[in-house]
């Protein structure tokens, strides 16, 4: 099976760094050392807020009568475990992105933790993308039910979820994988092979 990311990540990492460092150099003095709380890498607040909003609206939709409630409950069955796993391995490394882009050294514990998460994501990515297909089908059912029942709020939820999944596939997952590659490259630069 073809891997969703090219195997030659060093070239991608170098290109990513070359393109992002100049853009974020202004933030070097303002960037946090790491996005950590009690030694744990934290998911960026913007991503946390989006997940929280989606979850709250979906919980509300599951209590709706008729087709909307049925479709929302089916969506929650496939989405909830997916969100849990994302919040374990895919999203926390993104909390280090500003520090990495600004060239700020990471504490060893944070680097090690993020590297483990990034490697786990790389390994699980084919399954997570398959889950997105099931989620997309359930989102489409919610969208159709909400449109039929004139439930604009839940129709908008379906649209938001479709866009959220696309953002994950196009931006967030690749960025989390690249973060692991950048950390690995920095570690190899610090301690060259003998």
Would you give an account of this structure?
There is one protein chain. With 194 residues, the protein is mainly alpha-helical. It has one domain. Helix content is 74%, strand content 2%. It is built from 6 helices and 2 strands. It has helices spanning 9-24, 45-62, 66-90, 97-101, 108-148, 152-190; strands spanning 36-37, 40-41. A two-stranded antiparallel ribbon has the order 1-2. β1 and β2 form a beta hairpin. It starts with 8 loop residues before the first helix and ends with a helix. The model is unreliable at 17-34 (pLDDT under 50).
Largest sheet entry: 2 strands, antiparallel
How much of the sequence lies in strands comes to: under 5%
Distance between the termini: 35 Å
Number of structural domains: 1
Q: Give the helices and strands as they follow along the chain.
A: HEEHHHHH
Separate helix tally: 6
Strand order of the largest sheet: 1-2
Number of strands: 2
Categorize the overall geometry. Answer: elongated
The secondary structure category is: mainly alpha
Rg measurement, Å:
19 Å
- The helicity comes to over 70%
Low-confidence stretches: 17-34
* Mean pLDDT figure: 86
Provide key terms for this protein:
194 residues, two-stranded antiparallel sheet, 2 strands, 74% helix, 2% strand, elongated
List the helices and strands and how they pair.
Layout: H1 9-24, E1 36-37, E2 40-41, H2 45-62, H3 66-90, H4 97-101, H5 108-148, H6 152-190
Antiparallel strand pairs: 1-2
Helix pairs in contact: 1-6, 2-3, 2-6, 3-5, 5-6
Brief sketch in words of this structure:
The chain is mostly helical.
């Amino acid at each position: 099976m073809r891997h969703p990311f090219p195997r030659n990540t060093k070239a991608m990492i170098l290109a990513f760094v070359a393109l992002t460092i100049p853009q974020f150099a202004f933030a070097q003095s303002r960037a946090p050392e790491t996005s950590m709380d009690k030694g744990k890498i934290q998911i960026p607040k913007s991503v946390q807020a989006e997940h929280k909003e989606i979850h709250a609206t979906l919980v509300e939709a599951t209590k709706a009568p008729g087709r909307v409630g049925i479709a929302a409950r089916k969506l929650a069955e496939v989405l909830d475990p997916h969100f849990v796993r994302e919040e374990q391995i895919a999203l926390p490394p993104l909390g280090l992105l500003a520090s990495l882009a600004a060239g700020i050294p990471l504490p060893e514990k944070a680097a090690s933790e993020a590297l483990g998460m990034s490697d786990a994501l790389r390994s699980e990515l084919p399954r997570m993308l398959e889950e997105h297909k099931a989620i997309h089908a359930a989102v489409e059912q919610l969208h159709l039910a909400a449109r039929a029942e004139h439930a604009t709020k839940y129709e908008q939820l379906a649209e938001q979820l479709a866009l959220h999944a696309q953002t994950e596939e196009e931006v967030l997952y690749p960025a989390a994988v690249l973060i692991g590659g950048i950390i690995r490259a920095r570690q190899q630069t610090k301690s060259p092979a003998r």
